[in-house]
Fold:
Amino acid sequence: MKFENTQVFNFEGALRGMRNPKDSWDKNDSRYDKNYNYIIGKNDLKLAQVLINAGKEHRKFLRQIMVCVDITAPRYWWSEFDTYKVGTTANSCSTMHKLDAYPITIDMFEIDEIFDEYDSIYNTIDMLEGLRKLYNETRDIRYLRAMKQRLPESFLQKRTVTMNYENIYEMVRQRSVHRLKEWSKDTMEWIESLPYFNELCMNSLKKNK
Structure:
């Protein structure tokens, strides 16, 4: 599983809007540094933490801190990620249009351990590759449908996802100790690398566990 090309943006707009309810813009102390990195000031960080701790209806500004990232993950992870698709957008690599374009190999699957040369994943790959070749030879749609119907849950798919810090807050709250390592390790390590997520959200998340 991989997270690539992460972009985080609109801290400035989110923190400006955070101060709208009390017209407290004069207390805003966040600024861009000389490298155009947005640095959250002590006043803004303190207010942001108070609002986040106060609950979902008060931390609306988190929905305005946007994240765009390329995620390559197995189908079983994507089926659970779809729980968080409120206010998210994703463009996927297409199995309908591109599944027949490349040889089917073991590195296209999330496999922790190969037990021996008789592991059934090899039979599955051989079957899928045979169907792919038949489809390319005949262009008979039945073979492509058969490939899609027989794809294992471990098949890796890449999506470019746009979401926000509120979506990610909920992922941490619900999945940080998930038994799938794709959540509890891979996803959480990526989340912890996001700018200011730890400072903004982690105390609140610990209190709400």
Notes: The radius of gyration is 22 Å. The chain has a mean pLDDT of 93. Strands lie at 2-9, 31-32, 38-39, 66-74, 89-92, 156-164. Residues 30 and 40 are 4 Å apart (CA to CA).
